[in-house]
Amino acid sequence: MRHANLENALASILSQYPEGKSEYELFGLLQQAPFALFDKNCLSEPLLLFQSHFVLFHSLYQLRSLYLNEQIADIEIHSTLIKLQPYQSQKEGLTELDSLQAYYLDWRNFSTTSGHDVEQLLTQFWTAMGKGSVSIALDEVKAAFQYFELDVDSDLRQVKTVYRKYQHLHHPDKGGETQKAQQTEANFNLLKTYLSQP
Questions:
Q1: Smallest Cα–Cα separation from 68: which of 85, 81, 53?
Q2: pLDDT of 93 strictly over 60
Q3: Quick one: DSSP state of residue 90?
C-alpha cells in the first residue's frame, strides 16, 4: 500500500527544512494546511498514536527507498530527527533491509497490533525507565519482537530460546550469513536490555 499524498507532503517538508524535523514537529505540519493529512486527535490515545506513527514511518521508509533507488538522497529516520541526507553510492537501496525498515514496510504489523499490545509496551517501557534503564525507542522494541516472531508480552526466557535457535540457524560457522547473525545478535541485545531488571 502506498500513501502518495503523504509521501509527496513529506518530500516537500523535508526539502523545505534541511535541518530536519522531529516526528512530533512533522505531525504538527501534516495536521495543518496545505496538507491536513492527519486528524487533530491522531495522537490523543495510545492505539491511535501507534497507528499514526506507523503510517508516518511507513511512508518515510517508502520515500527513503524511492530516493535510494533513484540515487536522489537518503533520509535519516528517528523519532527525534527526520532529515534528508546526501545520497552515497555505497547504499544499496532495498538490498539490505534493517529490522525497523522491514517492520514498517509490512502492513501486517499495523493491522495486528492491538490496543493491548501498545499498552503492554508502554507499561514495560515506563517500568524500565523508572528503574534507570537506558531509553529504548518503542518502535525498535516492537520490531525486535517481530524479528523473533514473538508477542510483545514475551519474557526474557522466551526471547533467549528463540535467539539460540536463530543463532544456530544463521551462524556463519553453520553455513549462515554474517549479516543475519549480526542482526539476530543486535535484536537480542535490544530485547535483553529492555526486559532485564537493573
A1: 85
A2: no
A3: T
User: Scanning the structure block, which residue is given the C-alpha cell 530485547?
Assistant: 191
The structure's pTM equals 0.65
Cα distance between residue 185 and residue 190, in whole Å: 9
Q: What is the DSSP letter of 151?
A: -
pLDDT digits (tens, 9 = 90+) for 113-142: 888 888 877 776 666 555 444 445 777 888
Can you give the residue ranges of every domain in the chain?
A: 4-91, 115-195
Q: DSSP letters along 45-81, please? A: SHHHHHHHHHHHHHHHHHHHHHHHHTTSEEEEE-SS-
Residues belonging to the chain = 198
**Cβ-based neighbour number of residue 122 at 10 Å:** 14
Query: Which amino acid makes up residue 43?
Result: L
